[in-house]
């Protein structure tokens, strides 16, 4: 059975998410696990996909970074798949771990992807520091008082943080920040 896994980091990445789903359907994935959660967050659908796959199945992702956040994470996932005798196919690389060359390339490219991400984050930090030094850094856009009040009202009603984020089209981290600030302000 061919099983797909699609992930974007935020619910705002609609086009990228739809493109992944389209690509997975194009390679005849019979079941697709999908989620919109940061790779550093809990990836419940990935865990479900890894639990679901059986011997002889193939797990398909469109890109390596949709599956793993680091080389160590990638290797853990690959080991899980290997123990279950399940292959891994990465579409944009044309890679399939059913071959020794595919396994080697996966390891090498995982290292390159991690290096690339770390370099991007370093350039981003340097850019922010330069913008701050020049007085051009504004930081994140503040949340309006109306939206902040809506977050607090929904939380008081017992709505989950994820539910609040969905209803108000906010990131979950923003909801957490608002609630933490309100809690801190209330303890004065």
Structure description:
The chain starts with a strand and ends with a helix. The protein is 55% helix and 12% strand. Helix 5 (145-156) packs antiparallel against helix 6 (161-168) and helix 6 crosses helix 7 (172-186). It has a 5-stranded mixed beta sheet, sandwiched between helices. It folds into 2 domains: 2-113, Rossmann fold (3-Layer(aba) Sandwich); 145-186. The mean pLDDT is 88. The protein has 7 helices and 5 strands. The chain is of the alpha/beta class.
Q: Using the CA coordinates, give the radius of gyration.
A: 20 Å
* H/E series: EHEHEHEEHHHH
Give the class from helix and strand content and strand pairing: alpha/beta
Low-pLDDT segments: none
Spatial shape: globular
**Which strand order spans the largest sheet, edge to edge or round the barrel?**
2-1-3-4-5
Query: Which fold name is given in CATH as the topology of the largest domain?
Result: Rossmann fold
Q: How many discrete structural domains?
A: 2
Q: How would you state the average pLDDT, rounded?
A: 88
Major β-sheet profile: 5 strands, mixed
The CATH superfamily of the largest domain bears the name Resolvase, N-terminal catalytic domain
Helix content: 55-70%
